Amino acid sequence: MEIKLSRKEICFIDGDARNISIKCTTGSLWITQPNDPYDHILHIGDIHNVSQKGKVVMFAVADSAIKFSNSALYSNKKMCLFWSSPLARACGSN
Length: 94
Known about the structure:
disordered C terminus, single chain, mainly beta
């Protein structure tokens, strides 16, 4: 699954997102999450593997595209992906 974010747009994953890979395919992203002592800046081609449970916040530093690992939203985990737009929301659960 790939989503596009405009500059300064925010997207977040709510739920257990551990072991999900987030790849920046265009632009650049700032990623933060609870219990991770570091914030992460991704540029084109960079990948971040979520290792902590809790909300993952992705902020588009520039117009960006994010690609998630194939199993990211449709695994055995219950999680939701939200955009800063109130009308855009994708949820997956099994």
